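tool=predict chain=A
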Amino acid sequence: KDHVLNDSSFNFEFSDSLNDQDYRIISDYVIEETDEEQHVVRTFHKGQVLLEPVESTEKEEELKKTKVGTDEAQITPIEPENDAVNKSSELIGPRAVNDVVYNGQYYNKAYANVTISAITSRTANIRYLRHKYEVAGDTRYAVWSTDPNRIKNLCANTASVSNGIPNNLWLQLKAEGTNVVTPWINNHTGAAALPSAYWGGTMTNLKPNTTYYVWLFRFYDVTGTGTAKFFHPQETSTVDSKGIYSPYVFTTDSAVALSITAPTFTQTSATHNTIPMVGKAYTGDIFQTSGQGKVQVTSNDGTTVQDKVTNLGHTITQGGTYNSATVSGLTAGTRYKGRTALKDYGGNWKYSGWSSYFY
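tool=predict ok
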């Protein structure tokens, strides 16, 4: 049964026979908001609250209330004003990024909708429900950009796109790469009489903590001169006088923390003042410009650190490797340890652990 937490508290009982076990409230909840274009946007959240014993005075018999936080998208415990009452719950927290749902026309017990889900720092899934039979010959595309005016700018010199985007502009858009345009998968297996059809796909090569704008198109081409037509489910977005539909909007998750494996140094290949360093792996999101990494050495267990390589290259994927290098300028007969320094996605220096000793 649905319960509106903002209207009243939710009371429940549990058995004292299970005192040695933890109790949690696990909550799935929905926040409904209306955007500037009067569309209902539903955001789905998940959260857990761990219950702990409460010490209270006679004045504080009312259970502490829990409300749904619309700003921070989480379940927020309200602390009592009296310091004599201990904290009764520990926030476990929802997923990092919640699904974004655009609901449109309601028909046959379902909303036409577009859902963007499983949002990470690099990928997001998108699917829709549309109250109309899908033409099997059409290819559907999700087009996304960090520019909310991408399609308007593309069609700036076109009087109207009500009947589709001209083929030359569509080819220009597709030529920009797979992180702009991708075909969707046809999941519709029903008969023509069915009112709804599902299609879906995955947007890849996204950037962390970035806002994206998405448009849906269908394209049917037999002669090579076809046009791409907007394909937004009924009433899930608005359309301007030129025939351009407003985009769907979502923001990716934050970058994954960078962790760097310590390098190794090949003692058997060392000279009196050089030694080869073997590149290793890193996990997480890394700076998107390669060639700025460092190899550092110390001869006194970290009291003094010297930069010996300052242009170390690396991959720019989420998880990857940094390059091998030759460390020079060492002092003969001196014992050293080495480490690698790389910038994380935001440009902050992160360091591996120190290697074993070498000479």
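The chain is about 5% helix and 35% strand. The CA atoms of residues 101 and 111 lie 11 Å apart.
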